[in-house]
């Protein structure tokens, strides 16, 4: 497919984001996150507590989604941290890639859509595609960055897994394989019914999906690595609960 024919889309953006994630709004979200994490650490259900806290602060649905996606209990954060390995640990090895998860996160970053820096040190988008997907102009750039980073890291093989129930998964498969012709590593793309369940049992998994992180053997924070190294003017909302390189300006962070 020629790049000129790809639809120009700003993935993961909303016209109200300037209001919902202003400096003042982020400060309120950070305060709410402290309360949410305190309750999660004591066994409360995430969804019900977010509803209570969201109603108290009068958060929008998008703000509540950011709060939910960014906040895990200390126990879960600790488990995920122990499982995390560096890309350098995967030299001459195979990576198992949660395809939609990685690509959509990078598309959102390239679109200057909101990315949430979470308290488990992952980046998560708010695109909320829910079973629908289309290849866009940012897909080209996202795949170029993935190939560049993995080739530089001397990864021997990359296996992408796509949920076959998501629209245009077959089209994305073809698009990945077309890009992979320029990569030095071996690349495979598989369409599956239950990608999550398959990745639960793997090591060297690339994803930010919280359930996969809780179940897999080990994981690589590849989206974070790529954003830090290659993408500028990223719209990061810092809900990590700690001081980071992303905290200088929540309206328009530059890495």
UniProtKB/TrEMBL annotation:
List, for all copies, the residue spans of the domain called DUF5616. 88-223
Kindly indicate where the leader peptide sits in this chain: none
> Which Pfam family name is an example for this entry?
DUF5616
Q: Which residues form the DUF434 domain?
A: 28-83
Question: Which PANTHER family does this one have?
Answer: DUF434 DOMAIN-CONTAINING PROTEIN, DUF5616 DOMAIN-CONTAINING PROTEIN
Recorded protein name is DUF434 domain-containing protein
Its taxonomic path starts at:
Bacteria, Bacillati, Bacillota, Clostridia, Eubacteriales
């Amino acid at each position: 497919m020629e790049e000129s024919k790809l639809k120009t889309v700003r993935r993961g953006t909303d016209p109200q984001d300037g209001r919902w994630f202003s400096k003042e709004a982020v400060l309120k979200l950070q305060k709410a996150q402290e309360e949410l994490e305190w309750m999660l650490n004591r066994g409360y259900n995430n969804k019900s507590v977010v509803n209570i806290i969201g109603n108290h602060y009068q958060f929008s649905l998008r703000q509540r989604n950011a709060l939910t996606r960014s906040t895990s209990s200390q126990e879960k954060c600790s488990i995920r941290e122990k499982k995390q390995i560096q890309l350098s640990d995967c030299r001459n090895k195979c990576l198992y890639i949660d395809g939609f998860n990685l690509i959509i996160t990078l598309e959102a970053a390239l679109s200057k859509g909101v990315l949430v820096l979470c308290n488990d040190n992952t980046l998560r988008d708010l695109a909320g595609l829910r079973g629908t997907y289309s290849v866009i102009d940012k897909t080209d750039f996202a795949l170029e960055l993935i190939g560049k980073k993995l080739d530089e890291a001397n990864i021997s093989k990359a296996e992408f897994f796509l949920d076959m129930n998501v629209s245009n998964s077959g089209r994305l498969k073809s698009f990945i394989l077309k890009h992979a012709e320029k990569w030095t590593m071996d690349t495979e793309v598989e369409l599956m019914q239950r990608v999550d369940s398959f990745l639960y049992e793997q090591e060297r998994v690339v994803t930010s999906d919280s359930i996969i992180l809780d179940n897999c053997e080990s994981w690589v924070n590849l989206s974070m690595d790529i954003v830090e190294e290659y993408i500028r003017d990223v719209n990061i909302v810092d809900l990590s609960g700690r001081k980071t390189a992303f905290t200088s300006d929540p309206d328009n962070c530059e890495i």
